Amino acid sequence: MPELHIRNQAAHVLLEPFLQEFAKTWECELVPLEDRYVLYPEVMLRKHGLFLFKLADGYKVCREEDATTWEDFLLMRLAHLLADRGRGRLQLNGEGEPLEVEPHRFATFDDYVDKVLEYEDDLVRDMKKYWIYAHRKRSIR
Asked: In terms of domain of life, where is this protein from (predicted)?
């Protein structure tokens, strides 16, 4: 499953209240488990979720392989907020060049779509945009 790693030494301070607020804002059920937190989006009927694992130097945020574009959006929103909150670095699968931390680019689903498609040409952009919006919910799939 795709992962975003957030490298931040002070990452675990007040994590649960932050996740509770995120869950409330985005209508998710927050389930704390022994080694991770799981966020189940209500709009996805709580069938699949986002996973947040604590690491020694930060977090790992991931989702199911067959996630909807809504779950992708929530993953990006959560990862960028966590990285910004702790002035951390984002890395795809925990390696390679750090990604730019841009929580404002993932503030809404529309912002997420614009970011994902920012380098596409007009016709391709329109086709992909339609696909992204159509695959927000599992009932469409």
From this structure: Bacteria
Residue 139: pLDDT band with limits 50, 70, 90: low
Would you tell me the crossing angle of helices 122-134 and 109-116 to the nearest 10 degrees?
A: 140
Q: What is the DSSP letter of 62?
A: E
As a dihedral over the C-alpha atoms of residue 64, residue 85, residue 113, residue 4, rounded to 10 degrees, the angle is -30
pLDDT at residue 141, as a whole number: 43
Give CA angle at 101 (113, 122), nearest 5°: 25
Contacts of range 8-13, beta carbons closer than 8 Å, 24 or more positions apart: 8/57, 8/58, 8/59, 8/82, 8/83, 8/86, 8/87, 8/88, 8/89, 9/57, 9/58, 10/86, 11/54, 11/57, 11/58, 11/59, 11/82, 11/86, 11/88, 12/54, 13/86
> pLDDT exceeding 70 applies to what percent of the chain?
87
pTM: 0.84
